[in-house]
Write a structure and sequence with these properties.
With 434 residues, the chain is of the alpha/beta class. The protein is 40% helix and 14% strand. Bound molecules: pyridoxal-5'-phosphate. Residues 40, 104-106, 129, 178, 182, 210, 212, 240, 242, 248, 253 line the site of pyridoxal-5'-phosphate.
């Protein structure tokens, strides 16, 4: 090429959650029976879609209007429905005009960070759901700016660390919160969220809060919607139907903008996000039409409650399996459906292995981990995959120096679920002792 056509941020775009699938598929070809515990898709993990939900969607599929473009911001009736839901909590008032639909939050995230001025940074959690940290880093063409989630304090944000990151880095213009969190499964108490909003107010920042798991909280934990405590701070709240319905294939999520007219720079920035969406015309129509019908269906609350109760039970099974394993640190998951385990410092080295019977599988794993640039947790994850077929994601791929792994709680079969966690516990012991 006579001129370099590669974007400055191209190197920041990695998504190990899906990359690891390539390795798993190679191993499957060699006869390894794989358990996919890497990706947060409840449907792929066997969640059956209830008949009533399918009937609602099928009914809409019979309407010609479902096949049309919709307004750029999204279907007005759906945006009004969402605004009514927010307003009925009585804490804050928004209108349909403050809501913009996207083709899933993935699309929203790439626009939110993509339209940010190159030199303006959003401080993201570490560990961080990769779509956020990669999109933010890519827009800046630099490593993500992060604040620490503390594995020794329920994975809560370290507010002192956050303040240091903001105070000493004038490029920071915003704070990203993910609550409930992926990859840690933490649910933040109101006081922590308030502390983060207060920091945003103190340093004149805006807040982005991803609340896609807001209705998947258990173990008696409580949190608040950030919009309820946002006061006068400019904010973007992210919500969607991928996890809750669950309907990830709908590619349907939305932004709620709070205090969008309080600050002229923020107002212009939001307008640019809307204009970027306008160039694409609009987002998926049918899921937007379905969303209010599904959420207000008589069966919806019971259906969601049944799933949430299962995640609660499984979060406790997972925690009980791993909590006594020496050399790792785990927290009980209280929301969403992920758990992150962290290896203690210094317990891993490049000599550790797991026994893999099949020679071709062992050879492939050894080849994959042979370079010194492969992180220690990725080494463990590849050995685990080769030895047991269990596919998890290295924690170091979630914008953190911590070494560990993320696993989902989505396997529906309880016997299989217990087997997976007990096998992981046993293999961590074998690996660390090898
Ligand atoms: C915190 C968080 N936000 C957003 C998404 C993506 O949602 P969507 O399917 O709407 O793109 C995910 C998916 O795992 C997620 O964990």
């Amino acid at each position: 090429m006579r001129t370099n056509i590669v974007h400055i941020g191209a190197g920041e775009l990695t998504y190990e959650i899906r990359n690891i699938v390539n390795v798993g598929q190679q191993l499957e070809k060699l006869g390894v029976e794989t358990h996919w515990e890497n990706i947060g898709d409840p449907v792929a993990k066997g969640e059956t879609i209830p008949e009533w939900m399918k009937e609602v969607v099928a009914g809409l599929a019979m309407k010609d209007s479902s096949y049309a473009y919709c307004p750029t911001k999204g279907m007005l009736a759906t945006r009004e429905f969402i605004a009514d839901q927010v307003n009925s909590r009585g804490k804050v008032q928004i209108t349909a005009e403050d809501i913009i639909f996207f083709n899933g939050l993935g699309d929203a995230i790439s626009k939110v960070f993509g339209m940010l001025k190159r030199t303006a940074r959003v401080v993201v959690p570490s560990p961080s759901y990769t779509t956020h940290s990669s999109a933010e880093a890519s827009h800046a063409g630099d490593r993500p700016v992060t604040y620490r989630l503390d594995p020794h304090n329920h994975w809560y944000p370290d507010l002192d660390d956050l303040e240091r990151r903001v105070k000493y880095n004038p490029a920071v213009a915003g704070i990203l919160i993910i609550n409930p969190d992926n990859p840690t499964g933490a649910v933040y108490p109101e006081a922590i969220l308030q502390g983060m909003v207060d920091l945003a107010r103190k340093y004149d920042l805006f807040v982005i809060c991803d609340e896609v798991y807001h209705n998947i909280i258990y173990n008696g934990k409580k949190t608040v919607a950030v919009s309820d405590i946002i006061g006068n701070v400019p904010a973007i709240i992210m919500r969607g139907i991928s996890k809750e319905m669950p309907w990830p294939g709908s590619r349907c999520g939305w932004l709620e903008v709070y205090n969008g007219h309080n600050d002229p720079v923020f107002e212009k920035y939001i307008a640019s996000i809307l204009n970027a969406k306008m160039l694409e015309v609009c987002s998926t129509t049918l899921p937007q039409m379905a969303m209010p019908k599904l959420v207000s269906h008589a069966e919806y609350d019971g259906y969601l409650a049944e799933r949430v109760a299962r995640y609660e039970r499984y979060s406790n099974i997972a925690y009980d399996s791993l909590k006594e394993v020496e050399g790792i640190q785990v927290n009980r998951t209280n929301g969403a459906f992920y758990m992150s385990a962290v290896f203690a410092e210094g317990v891993m080295n490049r000599q550790q292995t797991l026994p893999i019977e099949k020679e071709e599988v062992r050879t492939l794993v050894e080849k994959l981990v042979s370079s010194d640039t492969v992180s220690l947790d990725k080494r463990f994850v590849y050995y685990l995959l080769g030895a047991t077929g269990i596919c998890v994601v290295p924690l170091s791929s979630f914008a953190t120096e911590l070494q560990g792994f993320r696993i989902t709680l989505l396997e529906r079969d309880e016997t299989a679920f217990r087997m997976i966690f007990d096998t992981i516990a046993e293999n961590i012991r074998t690996y660390l002792d090898s």
